[in-house]
Structures are given as C-alpha cells and as structure tokens.
Design a protein that fits this description.
Layout lengths: L5 H20 L1 H24 L5 H11 L4 H29 L3 H21 L2 H21 L6 H25 L5 H24 L5 H25 L4 H5 L1 H30 L3 H14 L4 E2 L2 E2 L3 H35 L4 H34 L20 H25 L4 H16 L4 H26 L6 H19 L5 H15 L9 H24 L6 H20 L8 H20 L3 H36 L10 H4 L2 H18 L3 H27 L4 H21 L33
Helix pairs in contact: 2-3, 2-7, 2-18, 3-7, 3-19, 4-5, 4-6, 4-7, 4-9, 5-6, 5-15, 5-16, 6-16, 8-9, 8-11, 9-11, 9-22, 11-14, 11-23, 12-14, 13-14, 14-27, 15-16, 15-20, 16-17, 16-20, 17-18, 17-19, 17-20, 18-19, 21-22, 21-23, 21-25, 22-23, 23-27, 25-26, 26-27
C-alpha cells in the first residue's frame, strides 16, 4: 500500500480539529454545563454534610435552582436568591411569632404573603423577579415545617439559610473557576451583531429590497434583542469590572437603538405612503438623500463591525448631519420651482411641500439618532468614556391586573391546600403546601405556566421512581462520600440534560429539584418507605393542583390577558399624548421600552400563531409611530411656551406663535383626539382624530402664511414647519392601509384635500 501524502494527512487533521471546534461551540458547552452543575451540587452536599447541617439536600437543591450556563446569571440569581431568602426568613419568623398557635391564621397569612410575592415576581423582570419568588417560597419552605415546632423555629430558620448559602457559594465558585462562560462576552457579541444587522436592514430598506414580511420579522427580532440585551446587561454587572464600567453605555445603546429603529421605520413607512398616494415629485426630490445614507456605514468600502471601526462611521454621520439642513433648504427651493414650472395648483403644491417637509424632518431626526447610536457603540472600544454617564434605563411594562391575578391564583392554591392539610392532618401536608408555593412561583414566570407545572409534575413522578431505587436499592449498599457521588451523579446528570432542552425543561426542573428533595441524603439517612411515598404523592399532587389552577383560574393563555396587554400597548400612545415630558427616565424612553416590553410579552403569549403575532406588530408600529410623533409635537409646543415666557430670544418682539392661540388649541385638540382613539379604538373616534388633525394642519398653515408675510425669524418659521410635519405624519399614519385603523378609513380619506395625488392616472408605485 502507498502511504498517504503529508498534505492529505494534514487536511484530515484540520477536518478533525474543525469538527471538534464545532462540537465544542455547541454540544460541548452543554456537556461542560452538565459537568459543572453536578460538580457544584456534590460540592454543596459534601460541605453541608461536613458541617453536620441537618438538611444537606437543601444545599444541593439550591444548586439546581441557581445554576446557569454563564457566570453572570449565576451571580445575579444567587444575589437575588440570598436577598429573597433573608426577606422570607424575617417575614416567616414574624408570622410564626404571631400565629404559631393559630394554624388557620398562619396558613391564611402565609398564602397572602406568597400571593404578594408572586404578584411582585410577575411585575418585575429578570432575576429581580426571582428575588420575589424566593421571598415567598423561602417563607413557606422555612415557616411551614417550623410551625410544627415553634420552639425550634429560629434555629431551623438559621440552619436553612446556612444550607441555602452553601448552595449559592458552591454554584458561584464552580461557575467562576471551571471553564467560565461570561455573559459580558456574549453581550459584546450581541451588540456587534445587532449593529451590523440594523445597518444591513437600513441599507436594504432604502434600496427597496425588503417586503412587509421581512420588515415584520426583522422588527420582531429587534424586540427580542432589546429585551434580551437588557437582561444580559443586568447580569453582566455581577461578573467583571470591565462589564460594570460599560454598563451605562450598553443601557444607553439600547435606548438609542430603540429611538433610531423607530425613527427609521417611520421614515420608511412615510415614503411608502407617499409612493402609494402618487407623490412622485416629492419622492424624486428625496431619493438622492436616501442613496447617500448606506455608504456612510462603510469604512474604505467594507462594512463596519467592531466598536473601534465605528468611530469612523460616527464621524461620517456627524459631518453628513451638519451639512443636511442647508442642502435640504436648497432642495426645497428647487422643488418649489419644479412645482411652479409644472403648473400645479395651490392645493397640490402645498401638499407636496408638506410631504417634503415631513420626510426631511424624519430623515434629519433619523440621522441624528443614528449618529448618537453609532457614537455610543464606538465608545465601547475604550474602558471609560463620558457617554457612560447615563441616567435613563430600560423601563419594563407589566399589566397590574395580570400581576394581581398571578398573586391571587397563588394565594388561592396555598389556601385550598392548607385547608386540606388542616382538615386531614396529613403528615405530608407541609410538603404539599410548601411545594405548591414553590411551583406557583417557578411556573408563574413561564409563558405557559399550566404546561410548566404539568411538566414539573411529570418530572417529579420520574424522580420518585429513581429516588426509590437510590434510597432503598443503592444507598444501603454503599459506604463513604465518594461512592455516594458515584451513585448520585448519573441520576442527576439525566435531569440536568433535560433542562438544556427547551421542550423538556419543565421535566428537568421538576426532576432535579425534587429528586434532591426525595433522595438527597442527609447525615442521618432514614429508610421509611411510607414517609417517602407520602412525600412523593404530596409533591405530584401539589403540582397537579397548581397546573389545574393555572388552567382554570383566569388562565394566562386565555384571550382576556391578550386584550389587557393590547390595551396596555395602546395605553403607551395615550401616555405619550398626556404624561409629563420630564422625569427620571424621560417620557420617550419609558414609552419606547414599555411598548417593546409589552410586545415581547404578547409574542410569548401568541406562540406560533402567526396571525396573532402580525396583529401585535401592526399595533406596535402604529403605537410607536404616532406616539413618537405626539412626543415630538409636545416638545415643540413646550418650546413655544418657554419662548413666550422668555421673549428676549426674539429681541423684544412678540412671538407670533405665542400670540396666536387658535393653532395651538387645534393642535391640543388633536392630541386629545388621538389619545381617545388609542384608549378605545372605534370608527367614530378615528374620524374625530382625523378631522382634528386636518383642522390643526389647516390652522398651522394659516399661521405659517402670516409668518412668511411678516418676515418673522427663521427659527419661528422652522418650528412651525416642524409642528406641521408632526401633524401631517400623524395624519398619514391614521390612514395607512397597513395599520390596525385601516378598517375605519374611508377610501376617499387617503387622498384628502391636504394630500391630493399628483395626477388622476393613479399612484406611481415604486419598488
């Protein structure tokens, strides 16, 4: 046989290395997580046994509750678990002191506390939610067993906290030392990927290479990215000083991305509407500006990916932004001359100029927002930067009624099972009640809590069988901690593997946690089959009752919750029209983040129902477009009011905008009408909002004509033109055939008196 050549052997070795690298990036990470979790659980068990604590299984159980593939979530979850544990400890000691001799009052107060904590968990996000979960669960975990022996309640509580702390420390130690996976690294990758994908989306959209389905899919992905980035940022601050030094800029990046993406979508939609309405002259005048934007995101002809390279893009955007106003004014003069040369009548001429002003205002604001977004992204290349000083944060939005229902449901379950325990005096009644508290807390954060509770019941049933084999078939035949680890590791590894598969995560959670509860060895092992079966029955029964409660008591998957969340989403536009402009986070930031958070919840509720997801996106687009225009409009109105108080800016002359109040009253009426429409959409309110917008536009145009005749200051004229632009954009959004208001639109309204087509031959639809 002829020996293989060195080149072929080298190629084979490279293929093997590549295959191994691919495995290490995918399944390899799963196996590393599995090994780390088992190691942390056995470490916690060994330390608790060495310290002769009464419940080492609690330390092992804590590991499976806390452990995550990346270090940041482990540290964050551990921190909030410890905080929740301490709060639950204090509350339960107080309840035991008050109601130790009154079981009915004790169970009622425990159910109320668990309900309050479950509502708090539903109200909050990320691992802050987990802190509320643990405050309720720990109270039940410590208090219900301790209520059977009030004299030893304090020592029982202290040892339980010690066991939980050992589990937390073991998880953090193993996660940080053994093959650590840092959230900060994933965060940087997410930021880089999102910047690149958004630039590609902008370039493709301006080039007419995206359709409606792509727009919806892209914006749905952006919603997930925004919520996920905030979760990763809040976890990464627990990892390294480097992550903490950049945390403010990452939060700012998220806020600026929301503003830029909303502004670009509004600009893109407006251009589509102008094409559909036959405003070809305006579109032709604007097209050269759109062709100039995509090259601004390149460096030497190559796409910019890293933060360091983004410095060049930021400078290009800044220079382009500086020259844009003068060029736009020159283009507007040319557009007026073209309209005069074509012999357009006054209505068409005014409509085309208003279209142009609205589009250029959106263009300028998009370039400004994108410049800020790019500058913040570029600042991540250095450790410290002035852009780190950022007060505004992502502000999640949760429906209070939905959170209250979650708390009420948990309280009802705890109350019913507590009553059953008192009535039957079942020895495993404590297990029944405290497991129900844990299941309500853990399942309430899932998009499908009934399914989660049912899966946990299935996993617990499987853990019962494995636990019986371990407790009565294996443990009696082994001696020493090493053999105990050998016996436990395979059984625990199976459950950890299930948690890494999204479809079976509920089974894995139930299996791991309650296998530790049933078969986790204590220092003094008791072989009591009757007690074992009673506890196993109590565990499964509590989860079945919880699953039934989630399915029967105002189930989260029912239409009522979707209606509530959609109403809350529309309510964001109402707040944009009515709420105070100032505040710690700023109205625009609260509006942007709240709308996207609600859309994220609605998408989770919709699952794979594409029709429901598309309807949600239509409401998101309408809310963001009109809500942002309303905030812009209110900011301009506030500036007019400020100038009327300080007339020195106009060299002692009377501000014509402040002197004439009719246009302002009409604009305020528009905001009220739009607010009423989003609060309760119907055809009459839509017609009222449309009429009020037209009236406001007409009133502003009359004042603008007077300002031009009186040769008022240029800034006064520009401010009124900006106000007109915002009003006109609101009107175009209200009659958009792709909006959720399309069913209310009179076909004749799309070519109203303030926006007639250029000709009677039909619209010139561009690609």
């Amino acid at each position: 046989m002829q020996a293989s050549s060195p080149s072929s052997a080298q190629a084979g070795a490279q293929r093997i290395l590549q295959a191994f690298a691919d495995w290490a990036r995918t399944d390899g990470l799963v196996w590393i997580y599995l090994i780390k979790t088992i190691a942390a659980a056995l470490l916690a068990l060994g330390v608790a046994m060495k310290l002769d604590l009464p419940g080492p299984r609690t330390a092992m159980t804590t590991v499976f509750i806390v452990m995550q593939p990346q270090s940041g979530p482990v540290f964050a979850k551990s921190f909030y678990r410890l905080c929740g544990t301490l709060v639950g400890l204090v509350v339960m000691l107080a309840l035991i002191g008050l109601f130790a001799q009154q079981p009915v009052l004790f169970i009622a107060s425990t159910a109320l506390w668990v309900g309050i904590c479950t509502a708090g968990a539903a109200r909050n996000r990320n691992f802050r939610s987990y802190g509320f979960v643990l405050a309720g669960y720990t109270a039940a975990l410590i208090g219900i067993p301790a209520s059977q022996n009030p004299d030893g309640a304090f020592m029982s509580a202290m040892t339980r906290v010690a066991e939980i702390s050992i589990g937390i420390l073991a998880s953090g130690f193993v996660s940080a030392v053994a093959f650590p996976q840092f959230t900060g690294e994933a965060l940087r990758s997410t930021v880089r990927r999102r910047f690149s994908s958004f630039v590609d989306y902008v370039s493709a959209a301006l080039g007419g290479r995206v359709d409606r389905s792509q727009i919806e899919a892209t914006n749905a992905r952006f919603v997930v990215d925004i919520v996920g980035l905030e979760a990763s940022r809040s976890n990464a601050v627990f990892e390294t000083p480097d992550s903490r030094m950049r945390s403010g800029r990452v939060a700012r990046l998220n806020t600026e991305f929301m503003a830029a993406s909303t502004r670009f979508h509004a600009l893109h939609q407006l251009m589509n509407r102008l094409r559909d309405h036959g405003s070809t002259v305006t579109v032709d005048a604007l097209e050269p500006y759109f062709r100039e934007i995509a090259p601004l995101f390149d460096k030497a002809g190559e796409p910019v990916l890293t933060a360091a390279d983004a410095v060049h893009v930021s400078k290009q955007l800044e220079d382009y932004r500086a020259t844009l106003p003068k060029r736009v004014r020159e283009t507007r003069v040319q557009l007026e001359a073209d309209l005069d040369r074509q012999g357009k009548d006054a209505d068409i001429r005014a409509a085309r100029l208003l279209d142009f002003d609205t589009a250029t205002e959106l263009l300028y604001r998009f370039v400004a927002d994108m410049n800020e977004y790019t500058a913040t992204y570029a600042s991540l290349a250095v450790d410290t930067h002035s852009r780190e000083k950022w007060v505004a944060r992502y502000v999640p939005k949760t429906d209070l009624v939905a959170a209250g229902v979650s708390g009420l449901r948990a309280a009802i379950v705890i109350g019913l099972l507590g009553a059953f325990w008192i009535a039957t005096a079942w020895p495993s009644g404590t297990t029944l009640v405290l497991t129900a508290a844990a299941t309500c807390a853990l399942a309430s954060s899932s998009p499908q809590p009934a399914r989660m509770a049912a899966q946990m019941a299935g996993g617990t049933a499987l853990a019962t069988l494995v636990g019986m084999i371990l407790t009565f078939g294996v443990f009696p035949h082994i001696d020493g901690f090493p053999l105990l680890c050998v016996a436990l590791a395979p059984a625990l590894a199976f459950g950890v593997f299930l948690t890494t598969r999204p479809a079976y995560a509920g089974y894995g959670v139930g299996y791991c946690i309650f296998l530790c509860f049933l078969a986790g060895p204590d220092n003094v092992v008791q072989y009591n089959p009757i007690s074992f079966m009673n506890d196993a029955l109590a565990l499964v029964l509590s989860m079945i009752v919880t699953a039934l409660a989630f399915g029967a008591i105002l189930p989260p998957s029912a239409p009522w919750l979707r209606k509530r969340l959609l109403a809350s989403l529309r309510g964001q536009a109402v707040h944009a029209c009515r709420a105070r402009l100032t505040g710690l986070a700023g109205l625009r930031n609260r509006f942007e983040s709240g709308a996207r958070d609600l859309v994220f919840q609605l998408h989770a509720l919709a699952g794979n129902d594409q029709a429901m997801r598309q309807d949600t996106l239509r409401w998101m687009f309408a809310t963001l477009e009109i809500g942002n225009a309303a905030i812009d409009l209110r900011e301009e109105l506030a500036a007019v009011s400020a100038e009327s108080v300080h007339p020195a800016t106009h060299t002692g002359t009377t501000d014509p905008l402040a002197a004439n109040t009719a246009w302002r009253d009409a604009t305020t009426a528009t905001l009220k009408a739009v607010s009423a429409l989003f609060a309760r959409p119907d055809a009459n309110r839509h017609a009222t909002a449309l009429a009020a917008t037209r009236a406001a536009i007409a009133a502003c145009q009359r004042v603008l004509e007077q300002i031009v005749r009186d040769d008022a200051p240029r800034e006064t004229r520009h401010r009124l033109q900006r106000i007109l632009s915002h009003l006109h954009f609101i009107r175009t959004a209200l009659i958009d055939p792709q909006s959720p208001f399309a069913a209310y639109v009179d076909p004749r309204a799309s070519h109203g008196a303030d926006n007639p087509p250029d000709n009677t031959q039909g619209a010139n639809h561009a690609a």
